[in-house]
Request: fold
Amino acid sequence: MKTTASRGRRGAVALIAAGVLAVSLTACGGSGGNGESGSEDIGISIITKTASNPFFLAMSEGAKEEADKLGVTLTTAAGKEDGDEPSQVTAVENAISRGDKGIIIAPNGPSVLDAIQKARDAGIYVIAVDTPPDPADAVDITYATDNRLAGQLIGQWTAAQLDGGDAVIGMLDLFADKIVTVDNNRDQGFLEGMGIDVNDPDKIGDEAPTGSYTGGAGGTYTIVGNEPSQATEEGGRTAMETLLSKNENINVVYTINEPAAYGAYQALQAAGKEKDVLLVSVDGGCTGVDYVKQGILGATSQQYPLKMATLSMEAIVELVKTGTKPQTSEGLDFFNTGVELVTDKPVDGLASIDTTEGSQVCWG
Reply:
């Protein structure tokens, strides 16, 4: 499904913003409705990380549209904030009590895995989206961006833009107190794209703080630090202020997502340094693509939450009706929903799309 920001999406945003964290939506099935005959007895829950992040708002809206199309009963739920595991555990337990056939979840952390196992033991098919759990087989399948590749693309772009110059790098991650695969893969992927040795590829922050990068024309680097942003604008601003207090000469900033990136931009503006920094991110939402167009971001890796939701819904309905299970992408332990580098400053040898094309497919 390819779409731009729609009027329908605004309704979902208003609903969630009003404080409703879970709502059951029953579509009309059988003859005379848009749904497929018999699908109205299929209950599915979609449980996102937050009810405020634009990425997950788009994902929930995509699931609602697909529920109308398929004629299934959909319940939506979300954590109060990124990392809120108890709310997700409660939502999973509610899905078990309802007898849902499937759960689609962007897990907020490892504490959710026990609840997921209980759901699977109860015969519920569980699909992770956005964030593959660790281990991957804690769910039946994951539909997600190749987050490692997403990080590598913006790292490669950044190294090329530096043209051999020194890189003084600030890293705006998701958490400092827990390990989440999406956080690790984007962070480490970015450094790999820059051509920086990451030491343990599954651990954030253990790379040498100074050394040489080999991406682009190659050069020397200094990593000022890794600061948690909680993937929010406020968190990004605070994290950037902290990094600038450590080294005011930062000229490269990696951010976990675009809300954190905009917070970082505000801090850079306040310090009068916004024109001196290459700021890159991951998401490729409609607002994020506009940030690239404005020059706030140099590049972003675009992912497709609507596609994650749509394919997950279809997979559960197909499984219930025919017993056919979805398969992972070749060579991966998840189903890859795709990623594109979005920039108006293309690099030779590095595939990308510009902001015009990116705005046409934002959120997928």
The two ends are 6 Å apart (CA to CA).
